[in-house]
Design a protein that fits this description.
With 621 residues, the chain is of the alpha/beta class. Helix content is 35%, strand content 17%.
């Protein structure tokens, strides 16, 4: 009899569900992709329905259902927290405790009520700790029999950071840092102060940081003030936060704005307001401190485990700049990071923990990428796609040979067009990796502005990632290693620079719009001011369709990379199904949509190029 386990993360942010059958990851999806509510925290009903359908099993066939944390332990932490901050914590207490008493304190009963919609059989419920779920999500899908495990996030129940040791099918927690002392909450506090949304805007701070001036006295002063006033950073990477400067323990605010304004000399930035050089420098300062902390934690992990491999999870593990700082140290021979390192990935970890620890199953590594390139979501047949295309009365052509589609799409991208790209199974996690993507030419100096303002409807400074043929990685980025999940940055080789980067010049009087014109790169749409890029390497065997498209683009242009950004607009999740894709295409200034074996043309209507001998309209059975 098969061992089938569903993992669930829910009720905080970014709910998700996954299905594990006999240790194989069959399917995983975030609830937001179905509900169309960004970072949806609700019970992942649609995600569970999907993974059961994808696995071809009934609810009654499940062995266990594993939830990604321990609610009672989290409630204990909340109570002790409010008690410690009396009377300051009264407002937070009055806000959160009624919700806990009504629902979360009785999570087992609450989950049963939701699960009854799937069947009346009482499936075994399991509750691994939050950071154990993160650790399991990092270690068990990795290709390593033995590894040091580093998990860093805001907070789970008590833990905010753990160092673990994984060997075969066992995980041992060796070190733990507890709330409120948290690198994740420190970074979130700067996210809040810089005017972005906590739990979703942290990557904006990371994207803003390269516009800071590393030579500026202001940047240096900001960094020193963080290290001297806000945190006490220890040699082993652990830290103590100076809670006089933080309000997250007692209210819905993250920072004591009055104290921060006195410390840094700038007021908190209001959302959507202009961004000054001081904001850029402050973003760079906290990014530098984050890298320093992560390198210290990695060094401690290596020292106490003696391992040559490192795996990572937790929201901070999505900070690709800090990840690269760790990789550059050479502390570990290999680093593997869970591509869905945030709470959504906790669903995967909870299922793996149930399978290997609770079920005592032996671990066998048969696949070098058990995450299956993160392509764990739903796919849609051409018949389903055609129905939606016709519903929206779109002009389209069907191509029997997918190579022909790649030739046409590559030509369009080379000619400055923006292409929506919808293929096969949807990605799991925060990154679009070539199945739900928007694609464009990285050489075009105006493309970053076009994509941000006319396609994505978001801040103009936001960077884009290059998707690079894996075999061309060293040609463009020298020492960069494989990065199939966009979790590392790499520095563009000097041969591709056009001038001195403005990051090293006196630019204090320039706006961010002016600085956007100074990347100093042959590929300005994907290169930061410090000549770095958040790279995705595309392997021919793992991702054949996307590889073929980039290869065709290279034949035309000589350039073995394209812009790859997620197929969504600001405030919305990545598209899931053909309806989402068509609506996203129509609601933006995208020029073409490649969806399955169809090309939908917005700009030329009936004038698609004919490079094939087998073009015909698809007739569904």
């Amino acid at each position: 009899m098969k061992t089938a386990i569903i993992g669930i993360s829910a009720f905080y942010h970014d709910s998700a569900a996954c299905l594990l059958i006999d240790g194989e990851l069959i399917a995983a999806a975030q609830e937001e992709r179905f509900s169309r509510i960004k970072n949806d925290a609700s019970f992942p009903k649609s995600a569970i329905q999907y993974v059961l359908k994808e696995g071809g099993i009934e609810y009654e066939d499940l062995t266990a259902i594993s939830f990604y944390d321990k609610p009672l332990l989290k409630f204990e932490r909340l109570m002790e927290n409010y008690h410690s901050f009396v009377p300051r914590g009264i407002s937070g207490f009055l806000t959160s405790v009624p919700v806990w008493i009504k629902e979360k304190l009785f999570m087992r009963k609450f989950l049963r009520e939701h699960l009854n919609e799937f069947g009346k059989k009482k499936i075994r419920l399991l509750f691994p700790e939050h950071h154990l779920s993160h650790a399991a999500s990092a270690f068990y899908p990795s290709p390593f029999e033995e590894a040091a495990i580093l998990t860093v996030d805001g907070v789970g129940e008590w833990a905010t950071t753990t160092i673990c040791y994984g060997k075969f099918d066992q995980i041992t927690i060796l070190r733990q840092l507890d709330y409120p002392h948290s690198l994740g909450l420190l970074y979130a506090s700067f996210t809040y102060y810089l005017g972005f949304k906590v739990n979703s805007g942290e990557y904006k701070v990371m994207g803003l940081a390269p516009y800071g001036n590393p030579q500026s006295e202001q940047t240096h002063a900001y960094k020193e003030k963080i290290l001297q006033e806000l945190i006490d950073l220890r040699e082993d990477g652990s830290m103590l936060l100076n809670m006089d400067y933080f309000d997250f323990a007692t209210s819905t605010r993250m920072t004591n704005n009055k104290k921060w304004e006195t410390l840094f000399g700038i007021a908190p930035r209001y959302p959507e307001s202009s961004i000054s050089q001081a904001h850029m420098n402050l973003a760079l300062a906290i990014q530098q401190v984050t890298g320093l902390c992560m390198v210290s934690l990695a060094a401690t992990a290596q020292k106490i485990t003696g391992c040559k491999n490192l795996v990572m999870a937790g929201g901070v593990a999505l900070n690709c700049v800090a990840n690269s700082k760790m990789a550059e140290t050479g502390l570990f021979e290999k680093i593997w990071i869970q591509p869905a390192s945030g709470d959504a990935g906790g669903s995967i970890g909870s299922a793996y923990a149930a399978f290997y620890i609770w079920n005592k199953s032996p671990r066998q590594i048969t696949d070098p990428d058990a995450m299956k390139a993160a392509f764990l979501g739903p796919a849609y047949a051409d018949q389903e796609i055609l129905k939606v295309i016709r519903k929206y009365d779109l002009v389209y052509k069907y191509f029997a040979d997918f190579n022909e589609i790649c030739i046409i799409a590559a030509e369009k991208i080379a000619n400055g067009k923006v292409v929506g790209w919808f293929q096969d199974r949807m990605e799991f996690g925060p990154r679009a990796l070539g199945n739900r993507s928007i694609l464009a030419d990285p050489r075009n100096p105006g493309m970053q502005k076009i994509l941000n303002l006319k396609i994505k409807f978001r801040e103009g400074f936001r960077p884009f990632a290059p998707a690079v043929l894996a075999e061309d990685m060293k040609e463009y980025f020298g020492k960069g290693s494989d990065s199939p999940y966009m979790l590392f940055t790499a520095i563009l080789r000097q041969k591709w620079h056009t001038c001195e980067s403005s990051a090293e010049s006196d630019d204090s009087g320039e706006s961010i719009e002016q600085r956007l014109q100074k990347t100093g790169s042959v590929f300005p749409a994907v290169t930061h001011l410090d000549s770095s890029a958040r790279v995705q390497t595309v392997d021919r065997m793992l991702h054949p369709k996307f590889w073929r498209l980039i290869a065709e683009f290279k034949k035309i242009t000589g350039c073995g990379m394209i812009i790859n950004t997620s197929f969504n607009v600001r405030g919305e999740p990545i598209v899931c199904n053909p309806k989402d894709a068509c609506e996203g295409f129509l609601g933006t200034e995208m020029d073409f949509l490649v969806i399955g074996n169809y090309i939908v043309d917005k700009t030329e209507q009936h004038n698609l190029p004919s490079v094939a001998t087998h073009i015909s309209e698809f007739k569904p059975d």
